[in-house]
Amino acid sequence: MKKALHPTMIRQDSSSLHDQHKPRAKNYFKVVSRKLAAVFTALLSGKRKKGSIDVNKMQKNNTRVKRISFSTSTYQSTVSDFSFEDICKATVNFSPENKIGEGGFGTVYKGRLKDGSLVAVKRAKKDKYDQGLPQQFKNEILTLSKIEHLNLVRLFGYLEHKDEQIIVVEYVGNGNLREHLDGVRGNGLEIAERLDIAIDVAHAITYLHTYTDPPIIHRDIKASNILITEKLRAKVADFGFARLATEDPTATHISTQVKGTAGYVDPEYTRTYQLTDKSDVYSFGVLLVELMTGRYPIESKKPVKERVTIRWAMKRLKEGEFVIAMDPKLRRSPASNMVVENVLKLAHQCLAPVRQSRPTMKKCVEVLWGIRKDYKDRVSSTTAASTSHCSANFPYRNAKSDRHLFGIQEGDSYGFISA
Ligand SMILES: Nc1ncnc2c1ncn2[C@@H]1O[C@H](COP(=O)(O)OP(=O)(O)OP(=O)(O)O)[C@@H](O)[C@H]1O
């Protein structure tokens, strides 16, 4: 099991992250002109001033994808390129067989570059964006190009070619979190896996809020935007709604149009149009409830009292019946029950109606680390006790249940509480 990164370690770690991508960048993307590199360096370091070159304008008629690779944690960049033809080849002319998803922006395809590496190609809807590069697209490019983190989907390049607008990002090959919770992907997520995913997402948002300059508010944290790797770790995607937080360090919020997905949007933001990092904290609270209950934020087919999942789950928690809210797919055990209760308690804080009462994302990370530690301690003590019991009575342990981190969990059957 990979050790989670402390947010403060992320910068130092980014050079080794970069190393993983180096060969690809080296082999397949040439450095273009120094001028462009300088422009991108300025763009990435956030030092562009009024009157400097507008990269978006400059590239309006440019048909080359700009691939950005970060060589150090200080964001010195090199810019490389590949053509629309390369993208057509990579996706076999956007063949339906390579289609992996559809979103508000357009269609997503899986692509294989010349070097064999896999990418996700997001192709904008043509009729929708025939007026040129949409703001949502520009936001996504700008935001993604500035960030580098293990738990965030990386931008590899972007392209405008005639009426085509295309963005190329890291391919994350194991579907999204919602698909895993629905059981249409994978073998179902155990409680420890859900906890790891929650921590990965919390790391990613903490990074956006705390370690990017200026801070970034994601604005669309939801289960379908959490992509899952083969090792069941999470990467936060879709920065289409993201908007750079104000550069004014004294400002406490930015006023803006309400954007986001129903069920996840901070009610205070909806009411006041004031967006702060605490709006992401609220959406993260909804996501935590989703992870523990397996339910969608809005369950329109359920009885009225259960339709808004956070309201229903928080009521169960308040009345000491949190186990009723626990995803029926989760195995019950004292350790997993403890996780569900404590994660729901954290969700309760994240969902506070007033943003000042909500914790920061960094605080959420710390609380989740504590829950994971308690879980591990409890499971290993249960396992030790059961092992000594089993060695006397059952010399052959059942390796099948040894699926996750913590060995067999004979204690699972004890303390079972029926939902
Ligand atoms: N980088 C990626 N790697 C693998 N699959 C991806 C990637 N990006 C997106 N997908 C898949 O394509 C689907 C559509 O993605 P997209 O970001 O366009 O829309 P969405 O997040 O589902 O919806 P919305 O536009 O409302 O935010 C995702 O749900 C995911 O399953």
From TrEMBL:
<keyword id="KW-0067">ATP-binding</keyword>
<comment type="similarity">
    <text>Belongs to the protein kinase superfamily.</text>
</comment>
<keyword id="KW-0547">Nucleotide-binding</keyword>
<feature type="binding site">
    <location>
        <position position="126"/>
    </location>
    <ligand>
        <name>ATP</name>
    </ligand>
</feature>
<dbReference type="InterPro" id="IPR017441">
    <property type="entry name" value="Protein_kinase_ATP_BS"/>
</dbReference>
<keyword id="KW-0418">Kinase</keyword>
<protein>
    <recommendedName>
        <fullName>Protein kinase domain-containing protein</fullName>
    </recommendedName>
</protein>
<keyword id="KW-0723">Serine/threonine-protein kinase</keyword>
<dbReference type="InterPro" id="IPR000719">
    <property type="entry name" value="Prot_kinase_dom"/>
</dbReference>
<dbReference type="Pfam" id="PF00069">
    <property type="entry name" value="Pkinase"/>
</dbReference>
<dbReference type="InterPro" id="IPR011009">
    <property type="entry name" value="Kinase-like_dom_sf"/>
</dbReference>
<dbReference type="InterPro" id="IPR008271">
    <property type="entry name" value="Ser/Thr_kinase_AS"/>
</dbReference>
<feature type="domain" description="Protein kinase">
    <location>
        <begin position="94"/>
        <end position="370"/>
    </location>
</feature>
<feature type="region of interest" description="Disordered">
    <location>
        <begin position="1"/>
        <end position="22"/>
    </location>
</feature>
<keyword id="KW-0808">Transferase</keyword>
